[in-house]
Amino acid sequence: MNQSDGPSSSGFYSWDSTRGINSMPPNSTSSFHFSVSPEIDSAINGITIIILFVTMVSLGCTMEISKIKAHILKPKGVTIAVVAQFGIMPLIAFTLAKAFQLSPIEAVTVLICGCCPGGNLSNIFSLALQGDMNLSIVMTTCSNVVSLGMMPLLLYLYCQGFSNLENTVPYVSIMITLVMTLVPCAIGIAINHRVPAYSPIVMKAGLSSLLVASIAIGIMSGITVGGMVWMVLSPQLMAIASSMPMAGFCLGYTMSMFFKLSQECRRTISMETGCQNIQLCSAILKVAFPHEVIGPLYLFPLIVIVFQTGEALLLITVFKCYQRFKPPAHGKCIASADTAGGSLS
Question: In angstroms, how far is CA 313 from the centroid of its own chain?
C-alpha cells in the first residue's frame, strides 16, 4: 500500500498503516490509501444507517409515555443512572486510552464509544437480572435524549487531554447523527402508544433484520478492510474492548449502592452503565469520518459488543446461580415454621 504525503481534503487527521494517525497538522497530513469500492463503501454506510434506524424504532417500541412520566415525577433513580452513564463510561474510556497510549484516531474511537448513550441490549440484560424494567427503559430513553448535548460536550472536554485532537472530531456530523436518531425513536413510541399490539412484531422483525444486516456488514467489511482488520484486533484495543463493559457494570453497581438504591435498581443501573448504544457508535464512526481517516476502526464497536454481551451473560449466570443456591431468608423460615405449626394444630 502506498503512502503519499499531501494535504487532506477533509481537514482531518489521516490514518497511517505503520504509525496510526499522523501527528502532523491537518494541512500536511499523509493519507492512508487503501482500495475501497465506492459501491461497497456506500452500501456499508447505507446498511449502518438502516441498522441504527431499526434499532431506534425497536427501542421506541419499548417505551411507554405513562412510565416515562412516572419516573420524571420521581427522578432520583433516573438522575443517578444518567450521571453514571455519562460520568463513568467516558472517564473509563479516557483512562484506558491514556493508559494504553493509543494513537489519536484510536483514542477518538474509544472516546466516542465511551460517550455513547445506553443501548437496548441493556433492557434485555436487566430483565434477565430481574431488574427494574421501568427504570431500564426510561434510563435508555433519557440517556439517548441527553446525549444530544452531553456527547459532543464530553468529547470536546476529553479530547483536550490528548495532543492534536482539538480539531479532529467532526462535532457537526455527530450532532446530525444524534438528532436523526430521535425520528425513528419517536416512530417507535408512536407505534407503542397508538397500536401497542404491533410493538412485539416490530421488535422481532427489527431483531431479525438487525442480525441479517450485521452479517452483511461483516462480509462487506471483510472484503473492504481485508488484511487491515488486524489493526482492530491489536492487543491494546482488545484489552480496552474487554475492560470497558465490565468496568461499567461494576462501577455502575457501586455508584447506585452508594446512593442506597434497591437491589433491583442497582442491577439495572449496572447494566445500563456498561451497555453502550453500539449501533450508534458504529454509525458515527462510519458515516461521520472519511474512510481514509477512520480506516478499519469503525469495526471497533463490534469487538466491544462481543465482550459486552459475553460479560453480561457471565454476570447473569452468576446471579442465577446465586438465586438458585442462596439460603432462604431468616424471616421466611420463621414464617414457614409458624404456618406449619398452625396447620398441625
Answer: 16
**What pLDDT does 76 receive?**
75
Assign 85 to helix, strand or coil. Answer: helix
Sorted by where each begins, the domain ranges of the chain are 3-325
- Cα(132)–Cα(92) distance, rounded to whole angstroms? 25
The SS3 call for residue 5 is strand
pLDDT class of 22 with cuts at 50, 70, 90: very low
Backbone angles phi, psi at 249, to 5 degrees: -60, -50
Weakest-pLDDT range from 13-17, 82-86, 118-122: 13-17
With beta carbons less than 8 A apart as the criterion, state whether 115 and 137 touch: no
Q: Record the pTM.
A: 0.73
Architecture of the domain defined by 3-325:
Up-down Bundle (1.20)
Tell me if 249 sits within 8 A of 271, measured CB to CB: yes
143-177 as b/e, with b when 16 or more CB fall inside 10 Å? bbbebbebbbebbeebbeebebbeebbbeeebeeb
Q: In terms of Cα–Cα distance, which of 108, 59, 118 is closest to 84?
A: 118
Who contacts 202 (Cβ-Cβ below 8 Å, separation ≥6)? 57, 58, 61, 188, 191
**Positive or negative: CA dihedral 54, 56, 59, 65:** negative
Grid cell locating 70: 412516572
